[in-house]
Amino acid sequence: MPDYHIHTLPNGIRIVHKQVQHTKIAHSGFIMDIGSRDELSNETGIAHFWEHMAFKGTEKRKSFHILNRLESVGGELNAYTTKEKICFYSSVLDKHFDKSFELLTDITFRSVFPEREIEKERGVILEEMSMYLDTPEEAIVDEFDAVVYDSHPLGANILGTKESVSSFHKQDFLSFLDRNLSTDSLIFCSVSNLPFEKVLKLAEKYLGDIPEIRKHRERIPVSHYVPKSVTVEKSISQAHCVVGTPAYALSDERRIPFFMLVNILGGPGMNSRLNLAVREKHGLVYTIDANYATYLDTGLLTIYFGTEKKQLKRTTSLVLKELKKLREKPLGSLQLHTAKEQLMGQLAMAEESNMGLMMMIGKSILDQGRVDSLNEIFGQIKNITATDLVDIANDALREDQLSFLNYVPA
């Protein structure tokens, strides 16, 4: 990846910018090292609720003015919440970048959490929760976190519970922000054709008067893992299953080889081993995939599929068979070469999205203090051997360390 610029303001906020000449769109956002794992036991869901409330009123704007500010010029304003990050971001024509920067600053630092809007948005989130629960292929993946992480904050659902969401008021949001918001753990990141000098000038204009806030926050480390098998009866027509286990943390040198192993197993390509073995050969599923999520101190492998209830046992056996192959049979030279080329191609295409690139840059600097170039990542991939993959499979894909969550028709 070509060079990016980074500058730290006196208040600790880092400004990161990558100039891309061939675009008229400016993507930017505040990425904060705050997520659902930073909630107290009585705050489950408040990080996600804050994401919603940022659009519901600031010191100088009401909800309509926030929503209309960028959409009236063809732009987009959005947000997301994960276990470890919250992001407010926008996409606009480059000539409206000033406008989007100011608005993002306003909703990030000057939200006022009107009680009337909290009450209305509470209903919206409860509806979001109901919609999510009516989608078992999504719900089961999130609920699997609780199987693996148990009572640890990483095991809690990002949406929270109906009880917790129903309990929040203005002071709860202010307390959560007071405990977690720190200017040295948030980044304003942008990708556009604008020169860095202009971005920095606007940063000084809009962020210069934000007071320095430095909080020392220690996240609860992940405790001992105990494999579990859980089956839940639901009013559904298809059985759903997630198989998984804790995996390598973001800083672990085995992360890239393991990511490649997961890509071989159940990545987005139709030629993944799980897709070929379970869907193409036996016709037992419509969707089957494997994913690897990384956190600062742990990771999580999940394999998801849906199938007929009577085929659940057979399909699970086929999944375990593919895991066993990875542990016992090294890839041949052609298979290894193909796997490397496929992964490098996927990573290169991911960087074609300037929006995704903006978020990736900001998150990488927050988590690691740097952004690895594609060439650096490609170098790591090219150095992976078949023996490396077998060793990692035997360490991370042991059958006795797998947990299972099944949703079955009642």
UniProtKB/TrEMBL annotation:
- Source species, domain of life: Bacteria
Q: Which Gene3D superfamilies match?
A: Metalloenzyme, LuxS/M16 peptidase-like
| Pfam families per UniProt | Peptidase_M16 (PF00675), Peptidase_M16_C (PF05193)
Domain Peptidase M16 C-terminal residues, every copy: 168-343
List the InterPro entries hit by this protein, alphabetically: Metalloenz_LuxS/M16, MPP/UQCRC_Complex, Pept_M16_N, Peptidase_M16_C
**Protein name listed in UniProt:** M16 family metallopeptidase
Family named by the database record: Belongs to the peptidase M16 family.
Domain (Peptidase M16 N-terminal): residue spans on this chain = 15-161
